[in-house]
Design brief:
Elements: H1 2-9, E1 13-15, E2 29-31, H2 36-49, E3 53-56, E4 73-76, E5 83-87, E6 92-96, H3 101-108, E7 113-114, H4 126-132, H5 139-142, H6 145-148, E8 149-155, E9 161-165, H7 178-181, E10 190-197, E11 199-200, E12 204-212, H8 215-226, E13 234-238, E14 246-254, H9 256-270, E15 275-276, H10 281-285, H11 305-319
Parallel strand pairs: 2-4, 3-4
Antiparallel strand pairs: 1-2, 5-6, 6-10, 7-11, 8-9, 8-10, 12-14, 12-15, 13-14
């Protein structure tokens, strides 16, 4: 098997080490293709041998999702790295799957643009964010990874190359299969290239925060902001484990004049205790978990947020587990 992987990748394959384990499951080989054709050859070889494949991007979320029963080949996207094309006038960028979000933003910042994806775990690749459907506070305005990906090139498990979407925002021909890849954790195939939608960089950005005696009060304040005409970039309700109180953080972005004009209205909605919030979005976007912690992602309508938080508090009290 290793000989076939070496041939498929032009020598970029090796036996796995302990560092290549996936969520505690030991792998046998690692292959690092540097093109879609090489990736297709790797997956064809794996399919012929009946080998179990796990795709690894930057390795920031290998322990997310269900642990694999076995791992024969880890296919690393580290060789699929770089900006293929940046069409600044169309706010579109084509990138290789293993390109880090930070690198994309560094490349397009000179054009006053951004890939508006927050990183719960720093250092993530674009394809990794799509595969795990990771996002952060700014999802409220810009949407999540599935909303920012216009097209994908991927390799199916049998080595067949497939493409979906394109380079235009209003691509309405047929089913939007690119969105199907979002949150699939690599189970539908190996993404090798993506076309992503960019947004203009705001010239001004301000966070406002306020504390509340109960989660119900915090959610009520947050919903008042969401339902207003402020068009905030993000609205976050946060509470520490075991605490009854909660905080609301609101991000207002735009031009200097526009932000200054909207801040008083946001402060009024948050209440008299509102003030400056976190220094940057990354602080609120980050998800930190220690050994033995369980991360649970729950998606509910805005009107049910208070009920979910009350359930969390109830679980803490009944089970004695910090949430």
């Amino acid at each position: 098997m290793l000989d076939r992987l070496l041939e498929a990748t032009g020598g970029q394959a090796r036996e796995a080490t302990a560092d290549d384990a996936v969520d505690g499951v030991t792998a046998k080989w690692v292959a690092a293709p540097s093109s879609t054709d090489q990736a297709a050859a790797v997956l064809r070889a794996a399919a012929d041998e009946g080998a179990v494949v796990v795709v690894r991007g930057c390795g920031t979320a290998l322990d997310w999702g269900r642990p694999p029963r076995a791992v024969d080949v880890v296919v690393s996207t580290e060789g699929l790295d770089g900006i293929v094309e940046h069409e600044a006038g169309d706010l579109v960028c084509t990138v290789e799957a293993g390109t880090r979000i930070d690198d994309v933003n560094a490349a397009v910042a000179g054009s006053g643009q951004q890939l508006a994806l927050d990183q719960p775990v720093p250092g993530a690749s674009v394809a990794g964010a799509l595969s795990t459907s990771r996002s952060g506070p700014r999802r409220m305005l810009y949407g999540g990874p599935r909303d920012l990906v216009l097209g994908v090139t991927m390799v199916r498990a049998d080595g067949v190359v497939a493409k979906a979407g394109g380079k235009v925002v209003k691509n309405v021909a047929g089913y939007d299969l690119a969105k199907l890849v979002g949150g699939a954790y690599g189970t539908l195939g190996l993404v090798t290239r993506l076309v992503v939608r960019l947004h203009p960089l705001p010239t001004a950005s301000r966070w406002l925060s306020s504390s509340y005696a109960s989660t119900d009060d915090a959610v009520a304040a947050a919903l008042s902001v969401v339902g207003s005409q402020l068009a905030p970039t993000a609205v976050e309700v946060c509470r520490d484990a075991g605490a009854d109180c909660a905080e609301v953080h609101v991000l207002v972005e735009g031009t200097e004049h526009g932000v200054a004009e909207r801040l008083p209205a946001a402060a009024e909605l948050l209440g008299p205790d509102s003030g400056d919030g976190p220094a940057d979005t990354a602080t609120l976007a980050r998800v930190e978990a220690g050994n033995g912690d369980v991360l649970v992602k729950v998606a509910v309508p805005l009107t049910h947020v208070a009920e979910v938080l009350r359930t969390v508090v109830d679980l803490e009290q009944r089970l004695g587990l910090p949430c």
